[in-house]
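Ticket #4471: structure output looks truncated?

Reporter: J.K.
Steps to reproduce: submitted the chain below (217 residues) through the standard prediction queue, then opened the result file.
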Amino acid sequence: MRVLLADDHQILRDGIRRGLESAGEDVVGEADNGEEAIALAIETKPDIVLMDLSMPVLDGVAAARRIREEVPDSKVVVLTMHDDPERTRAALQAGAAAYLTKGTSFADVLDTLRRVQEGEETLSPRLAASMLEHLGQEPSRNDLLSDRQVEILQMIADGMSTKQAARALGITQKTVHNHLNATYRRLDTQSLTHAVLSAVRLGIIDLHSTPDDGEAA
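Returned output as attached by the reporter:
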């Protein structure tokens, strides 16, 4: 796994770099501001950009959006001290594949990076519930998604990963992702979290929040 680190705190970058290298992963570059992160992402084409939100020159949300546009094969994982729903929502709208806070253990950060790199998508019920509290309600519409799309989205909302959903349904993970991509188009969204939240607001699925120890990918 090739990782680009983007954070304006040198000590934090050093610690994460040492941890990743000890785990056998490759750190292809380090950036201390958003503009540099974009330039390095274009140059190195990493599998994952581990991105802070509060950075000089250009913040992490704007940088994440540009990276997803310029290097679509690179996935962005946010690691930040901010855990408020509005910043989370902005980062996910910008195309972040996962959102972690800096209280997360390195083991969980590494696990999340590897799962995202493998194409897994999961949703933290606690994160989704927190975000949902800050969103308005929309009228129910139950004709947008197929039964299988609803089934998969409900599994994700209940905390399953795409790999777990595929196993439970007896289908491939690629088929699950195909259904999710169709769901994104029908709900006019580009992220798993917003697809789940939109479906909850429309009354298509239910969100049953359960306590968890940290943010999931």
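Triage note (M.O.): checked the attachment and the full token line is present. The first strand starts at residue 2 and ends at 6.
Status: closed, working as intended.
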